[in-house]
């Protein structure tokens, strides 16, 4: 019988802005919670995965690497990985799933730690990237044109949808309104109250058509999921959630305006890797670093036709907690905080276990999709409760 991969433990540190607890401390908080949730001990962990690994040139973005976790936890690992050259954030979880299926590890800690708000407040501890006279790598295709921020790249795709398909800002607003409404029901989220359309429309613009509420904000937190092999589930004390399929893709940065974001090919590939279809999905956790990205995932995964995503979400009823396709039930990155992709896998497990409390989707949800990225890179997980 072929091995399968399951998420058996989830954990999250305090989520805040300009926290004083160290990034390693936050990471250890989330690891301890995830290990306890799985009913395991650190002695049983033999794998670690992260995205993008420790980045010395940008410590706020990624301050903790695999080696530090292995050392701090006293692990004896058989397999580990951590690199930025991956499909997207959730690609680290997909890699862990592949590893346990191949028998390279039994229980893998997957983590993502962000510390951008605190790092900006303490530049003496987390020095910013020094100004350079030249740029290399992917930055050479965007920075010389004033497009250092991902808001600029994503905004171009959103403007195209407005010009070609008729998307309005009132329709786009439904992503932020839905996120804030759900976050208000999530005690761990940064946002504590719903957002009105009037407040949204009056907010200052960031990169047209995005206003302040369309963009996630720097957050300090760590999120952990534990991926385990199916043949060691007897060691687990939690409700396991199967990783039924994964997919990911990367677009070349040297585009002369790419036609489609990477959510579209990733969405098509996800269904090629499973017998499930979009019609089987009970809820979705879509990456929303910018409010337009969930629309690309709706279209890319086939929940609606290309060019129809803004109409699908119009009015917000379809994507509400009691709608036909509940979206970002924990508040997403616009409401919960910028957990940089891993929060969507975490929340997918919460919902499929029926542990969402006030934000729990009604009925008996058994299938969820969690995604990350959606601009030049993207990754998706199909999660099921067997």
UniProtKB/TrEMBL annotation:
Gene3D superfamilies: 3.40.47.10. It comes from the Bacteria. Residues 269-380 form the Thiolase C-terminal domain. Pfam families: Thiolase_C_1. InterPro entries: Thiolase, Thiolase-like, Thiolase_C_2. One of its GO terms (molecular function) is acetyl-CoA C-acyltransferase activity. This is Thiolase family protein. It comes from Novosphingobium piscinae. The lineage of its organism: Bacteria, Pseudomonadati, Pseudomonadota, Alphaproteobacteria, Sphingomonadales.
């Amino acid at each position: 019988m072929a091995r399968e991969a399951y998420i058996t433990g989830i954990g999250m540190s305090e989520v805040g802005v300009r926290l004083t607890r160290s990034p390693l401390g936050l990471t250890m908080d989330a690891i301890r919670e995830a290990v306890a949730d799985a009913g395991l001990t650190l002695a049983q962990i033999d794998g670690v995965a992260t995205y993008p690994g420790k980045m010395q040139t940008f410590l706020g973005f990624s301050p903790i690497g695999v080696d530090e976790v292995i050392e701090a936890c006293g692990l004896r690992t058989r397999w580990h990985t951590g690199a930025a050259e991956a499909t997207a954030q959730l690609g680290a979880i997909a890699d862990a799933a592949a590893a346990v299926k191949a028998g390279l590890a039994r229980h893998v800690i997957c983590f993502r730690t962000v510390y951008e708000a605190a790092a900006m407040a303490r530049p003496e501890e987390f020095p910013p990237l020094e100004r350079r006279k030249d740029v290399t790598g992917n930055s050479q295709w965007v920075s010389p044109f004033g497009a250092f921020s991902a808001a600029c790249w994503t905004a171009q795709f959103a403007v195209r949808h407005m010009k070609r398909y008729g998307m309005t800002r009132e329709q786009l607003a439904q992503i932020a309104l839905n996120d804030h409404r759900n976050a208000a029901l999530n005690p761990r989220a940064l946002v504590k109250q719903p957002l009105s359309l009037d407040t949204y429309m009056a907010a200052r613009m960031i990169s047209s058509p995005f206003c302040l509420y369309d963009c996630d904000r720097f957050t300090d937190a760590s999120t952990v999921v534990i991926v385990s092999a199916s043949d060691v589930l007897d060691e687990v004390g939690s409700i396991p959630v199967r990783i039924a399929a994964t997919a990911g893709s990367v677009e070349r940065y040297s585009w002369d305006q790419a036609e489609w974001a990477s959510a579209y090919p990733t969405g098509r590939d996800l269904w090629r890797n499973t017998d499930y279809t979009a019609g089987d999905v009970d809820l979705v956790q879509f990456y929303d670093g910018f409010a337009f990205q969930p629309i690309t995932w709706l279209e890319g995964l086939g929940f609606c036709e290309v060019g129809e995503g803004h109409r699908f979400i119009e009015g917000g009823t379809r994507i509400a907690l009691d709608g036909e396709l509940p979206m970002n039930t924990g508040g997403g990155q616009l409401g919960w905080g910028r957990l940089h992709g891993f929060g969507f896998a975490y929340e997918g497990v919460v919902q499929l276990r029926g542990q969402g409390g006030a934000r729990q989707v009604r009925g008996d949800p058994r299938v969820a999709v969690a995604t990350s990225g959606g601009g030049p890179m993207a990754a998706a997980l199909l999660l099921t409760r067997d």
